[in-house]
Amino acid sequence: MTVGGYLARPFNFFVSPTTDPMFALDRSFLCQASAMEMLCREGMDFNHLLRHGIRYLSRDEESEIRAMELDRAEGVREMISIDKGGEEFLSTVRFSCPLPPQLFKWGDKVDVR
To answer: 70 and 83 in one domain?
Structure first.
């Protein structure tokens, strides 16, 4: 290598079409049979691609997942019924542990039966 020059080396990494199951996102993975045949002939390990590839989301997929998570976090929830023993436990825990304000609001709406 000459002084003041650069040395470039190729590096390959796999980008996987799979996503985390918690996102409830199911993609179609399409490819031509002739392309798969050539990749197999050249030593491509599809198991490695699917198991160890870098997972990604497109911007549209990310926006969709963020909207679903926001709906889930702020959406309507069913009323929770708590018996007398549960009420006693909640009153003990409510004042002995620092809780976020959202939980105090939730605790005030509890229907005790």
So the answer is: no
